[in-house]
Write the C-alpha cells for this entry.
Amino acid sequence: QKEVEQNSGPLSVPEGAIASLNCTYSDRGSQSFFWYRQYSGKSPELIMSIYSNGDKEDGRFTAQLNKASQYVSLLIRDSQPSDSATYLCAIQAGRGSTLGRLYFGRGTQLTVWP
Amino acid sequence: EAEVAQSPRYKITEKSQAVAFWCDPISGHATLYWYRQILGQGPELLVQFQDESVVDDSQLPKDRFSAERLKGVDSTLKIQPAELGDSAMYLCASSPRAGTGEDTQYFGPGTRLTVL
C-alpha cells in the first residue's frame, strides 16, 4: 500500500499571506505528483502537476518536489478567501505505467480569512 | 472546455436495493477510473479501464460491485445490494491514455450516494 501523508489541518491564514501545504509519500518509485483542490461537496479539481525535482510555478501556485526526501509541497501566494478548500495531494506509481491509479492523502483543509 | 459527465448527481436509496451510476469521460480519453471518497478521506480507486478492458479492479468489492465499459466510451458502476457503509461520493475520472505519460486525470462532478 502506498502511503500519502499530508500535514494535519485545518490551516488558517489571513488574506494576502502565503499558505504552505505539505505532503510526504512512502513509495520511492513514485514518478508523478498532483495537487487537487476540492471545495465542500464538490469533486477534485486539478491545480498542479509536477514530475521533476525542484519548483514549478503557475500563477500564485508553486509546487515543490524533492524525491530524495519523498516530499512534495504546494505554496499559495497572496491567498484569497476563494482559496478556502481542501487540498489533496496525489501520487501516481509510475509514469508510463498502465496502472495509472492515484493514491491520495486525506487532504488539508485551508481557510483564508479576510 | 470538455468535461467528464456523471449522473445522477445525488442518489438516496435503502439498504439492499440496487443502484447504478453512469459516467461519460472526456471525448477521446481512453482511460477511465472510478473512485470512492468517504467523507473526510481522500478518493480511493475502485476500478480502472483502458478502453473497454479492466486494468485494475483489485480494490473493487466484487461480491456487490460491478463495472462495465462495453464500447470503451461511457461506463456504468453498479452496487447490488447497497449497504449502509456504501454511503460516499462516487467519482469518475478520465485521462488521455495511461502508460503514455499523458495521464493527468480529470474528475467529473461525482455522485453523492446516501444509503438509509
